[in-house]
Amino acid sequence: MARTIPAALAEASTRFADAPALIDSPTCLTYRELHARTRIVAGALHTTGVRPGDRVAICAPNTHHWVEAALGALSAGATLVPVNTRFTGPETLDVLTRSKARTLVVAGPFLGVDRLAELRNAGDPPGLRTIVRIPTDEQSPPDPHVIEWADLDELAHDTPEPRISPDDVSDILFTSGTTGRSKGAMSAHRQALAVADSWSTHAGLGQGDRYLVVNPFFHSFGYKAGILACLLRGAAIVPQAVFDTETTMALIERERITVLPGPPTIYQSLLDHPNRDRYDLSSLRLAVTGAAMVPVTLVERMRRDLSFDTVLTGYGLTEAVVATMCRHGDDADTVAHTCGRPTAGFELRIADNTGEVLLRGPNVMLGYLDDPAATAAAIDTDGWLHTGDVGRVDERGNLRITDRLKDMYICGGFNVYPAEVEQTLAQLPGVTDSAVIGVPDERLGEVGLAYVVTNHQLSTSDIVGFCRARLANYKVPRTVEFRTALPRNASGKVLKQVLRTERNPT
Length: 506
Description:
The chain is α/β, with parallel strands linked by helices. The protein has a five-stranded parallel β-sheet, covered by helices on one side. It has a four-stranded mixed β-sheet with strand order 12-13-14-15. Strands 16-17-19-20 form a four-stranded antiparallel β-sheet, with no helix packed on it. 50% of the residues are buried.
């Protein structure tokens, strides 16, 4: 197997030359054409000054442009920095500043939000020198300071292919921590490809599959178990920019989609849609889910009513991507209640004193960008990654996540770290104390509930509006409960378990 991503793409252009690689109507590229297109993007980026080791950030929805930009940047020898499209201007500015990104590829106005305008309102990233703008359905105002995507062809020139090592950093994916400050998890080319290869092997992805990628490309799953997995197996990447149930069903029917990974909410939405019977979804064969509790009844309905031959669950995190997976043949109870067995060369251990899930293996991240203290706290001297999740392993070796050491909860498939929300609330005049927890939600899995102590009159809309202007939507609390005080232990730490128990005494 190729050990760098550009080498994997070059290999795919030969092995799967005329097979469909990227289907984003009306754009449809074979693997040979995708490789050629990627070389054009790489040449254009080189012309703008991108050199090996530079960081290229991408803030855009799932379209063919994201795939071409990412593979083009990597082929130019750059390090990829995906940016969450739900981030506000200040959040994006922080990522670009700390990653020292030299180039930003950004979508034009999308879903009513001009992310480039938001970034400029937040400030100027000190190292940024080039902005490339991806077209969208919404009109972009003329801007002499950006390079339009359509102009890349004119900028492209033949350039020597850079020397890229399997140990070079391929990507930096920013993930929040319990301190509320994001951390950039660094991975090497060999690691990114190894986890994609392992996922593909256990999932059973192959040439001829048509993979609808709903998981965002900026997320480790959408990028590595999506784009890179298809690259290694010759499957067709079919990106979807925004999940909409009826649009998704129409896309499944039109493109004869066979593979559809995603959070449980996606499948529940498909099953419950009143127009489901109007669409032919019989091409579906493989689902891979996780990120939340999966009811046994959902697994059974996915197999019965959505025609999936195989439904699998797995466990991973940005620092490890794919750590455990169920296997073909596992029963519905195993798939619903466990995350499967270790994969991708990982060792799994449960800490004796805390029950924390520990992982060790060749694909644990290289470390956090410019943060040796956080790296040392996450990866101990014996090489074990401390995940912050609590779990147990059954007699067959399947991992079951039972709790979290960290306060993180999962909203619609996205990790939310309450400390970040609480730090934001602390900036609102009148808020003297706060605690945020995740509470069950039928559609999103969990949503935020903020307990707030104030010293003058504030309303729920004040709290939610303040957060919405500063945080990505999935981080914004859905409900607010005002308190005169929060329960604390003798050392002053908020007793969140008391708050959870109050809501659910059983």
